[in-house]
Amino acid sequence: MSNEWGPLSGLIGEWESDSGGLDTAFSHSKGEVLGSPYREKCTMKPFGPVDNGSQSLYGLDYKSAMWRWDEENPFHTEVGYWLWDAATGEVMKGFVVPRGIVVLAGGTAGTDATSFTLKASLDDPQYSIGENKYLAKNASSRSYVLNVTTNGDTWSYDEVTVLRMNEFDEPFSHTDHNTLRLVG
Ligand code: HEM
Q1: What is the mean pLDDT of the chain?
Q2: What percentage of the chain has pLDDT greater than the value 90?
Q3: Is residue 17 pLDDT above 70, yes or no?
Q4: How far is the centre of ligand 1, averaged over its atoms, from the C-alpha of 57 (Å)?
Q5: Residues 115-164: pLDDT tens digits?
Q6: Is 0.90 surpassed by the pTM of this model?
Q7: Most CB atoms within 10 A, among 28, 63, 79, 105?
Q8: Which of 1.10.10.60, 2.160.20.80, 2.40.50.840, 2.40.128.20 is the CATH number of 3-179?
Q9: Spatial contact of 144 and 130, defined as CB atoms under 8 Å apart
Q10: Which residues approach ligand 1 with their CB closer than 6 A?
């Protein structure tokens, strides 16, 4: 495949993991911070170009779902787009978390980069986080940092979402990491 997708080309495909993912979050049902192993399925379908005037973007149509143990329903899902602007080296991931959160995270990377970092924060004018009124009051997502590494038939991510939660005086780091292998 041509490299129109730049550093995103290593993410194209269908991906899965066994229960090697690890989530750290405050569990309301248990009343404590829990580390939850999870398994994951993810599809990334290439599209493009999308033109904004003189800007030309190539992207991936993205869906992922994560399951705890052998539960039937996923405990987290995301839908969105990854985008690449070859002229500026800008990489973006725009996605929705169905708790009522939208994120546009961004960063820069070289065309052949196999690792890159994307960031968003609540008050950034470009790479921002939108959230519903309940979350703004009770569990607000202040910032999001995502590290991605691609490696041929696997890719890995490591992400930290810093939350302001009513349960804690200090900001709480909600973290997730996983490695997925190519299945299609
Ligand atoms: C692999 C990725 C993720 C997984 C597996 C995951 C999973 C979870 C879990 C298990 C909880 C605790 C729910 C509970 O038991 O009360 C939680 C809470 C939360 N997550 Fe995530 N999460 C992920 C990514 C994200 C991202 C990227 C954001 C935002 C940018 C986010 C925002 C939140 C918020 C705001 C809460 C707090 C809800 C509350 O306390 O009422 N999460 N998440």
Answers
A1: 97
A2: 97
A3: yes
A4: 30
A5: 999 999 999 999 999 999 999 999 999 999 999 999 999 999 999 999 99
A6: yes
A7: 105
A8: 2.40.128.20
A9: no
A10: 23, 25-29, 36, 38, 66, 75-76, 97, 99, 101, 103, 135, 138-139, 141, 144, 161, 163, 174, 176
Coil/strand/helix, residue 113: coil
List the chain domain ranges.
Answer: 3-179
Q: Report residue 47 as tokens.
A: 């599209």
Burial of 176 (0-12, 13-18, 19+ CB in 10 A): buried
92 C-alpha to ligand 1 centroid (Å):
21
Ligand 1 centroid to Cα of residue 45, in Å, is: 25
Instruction: Give the pair of three-digit tokens for residue 101.
Output: 């959160």
Residue 88 Cα to ligand 1 middle (Å):
32
- Which is higher by pLDDT, 96 or 1? 96
State which ligand 1 atom lies nearest to the alpha carbon of 38: 5
